[in-house]
Amino acid sequence: MNIFSMKYINKDIRSEPATLNIYRNTTPDASYNGFVDTYGLLKRALLTEQGFLCGYCMKLIPYADGRFTSVEHYISQKKHENSNYTLVQHKTHSLRYNNMLAVCKNNGKHCDESRGNIPFKILNPHNKICETHIKYTLSGKIESRNNPLVDFDIEILKLNCQSLKDLRSEFWETAKNKLITKHPKGTWSKNIIELERQHYIERQSGKHRAFCNYIIFRFNHLLSLPKYQQNN
């Protein structure tokens, strides 16, 4: 089972809040800057769709009230000098639900806040193929599959900043310690590990677990080792 490091977001236009649809279709010269997310319905819809994970780094965004959430536009609201879209197209896409995703607030260290308006080369969590472009290492790093265009996208999102690598490792240690607590011998059956891994594949009360794909990757690695060694 292959697990990748950017989770595909299956967009469903039926999840779009009516407030956004009405504003877009009834407001002359509408733009996202003029839209008011009444009751946080847009952020809630995006978070629910994503299992409450940041659309880029997979940090858990725990609350639906918007305190820790930004609405990201894959095609940016403002035109970057390297954009292939016109100013009008940027403005139009700023109000399209299928161009939006929920991302974490992080003081500019990574994700949308480090990307700014820079256009992506390839990576797009709205496209299922995004999952095949990148992979993890055991140190918590995200890498491309020898594609410099993907390396560019990883870099603008700062997905390998130290804080994210540390968090991935920290969450894996927590998951591993839970396994050790349940089965303290340190050598486990394939069935035990697969059952534990399943907790990170499935949503719990509508939410994915933080960095779930990385933890699944580590469980898969554990299964590939002789006797499922505890020190890995």
Key phrases:
two-stranded antiparallel ribbon, 2 domains, 8 helices, two-stranded antiparallel sheet, 232 residues, 7% strand, mainly alpha
Give the strand tally. 4
What is the arithmetic mean of pLDDT? Answer: 91
Residues in helices, as a percent range = 25-40%
Strand content: 5-15%
Q: Could you say how many structural domains there are in total?
A: 2
Rg (CA only): 19 Å
Shape descriptor: elongated
Q: What order do the SSEs take from the amino end to the carboxyl end, as H and E?
A: HHEHEHEEHHHH
Largest sheet: 2 strands, antiparallel
Give start-end ranges of low-pLDDT stretches: none
Distance between the termini: 19 Å
Strand adjacency order, main sheet: 1-2
**What count of helical segments does DSSP give?**
8
Q: What structural class do the secondary elements suggest?
A: mainly alpha
Task: Compose a concise summary of this entry.
With 232 residues, the chain is mainly alpha-helical.
Could you characterize what this model shows?
It is a single chain. The protein folds into two domains: 13-162, no CATH class; 164-223. The protein is built from eight helices and four strands; from the N terminus they run H-H-E-H-E-H-E-E-H-H-H-H. It has helices at residues 18-26, 41-49, 87-93, 112-115, 148-157, 162-182, 190-201, 212-223; strands spanning 69-73, 100-104, 134-136, 142-144. Strand 3 and strand 4 form a beta hairpin. The protein is elongated, with a radius of gyration of 19 Å. The relative contact order is 0.15. The mean pLDDT is 91.
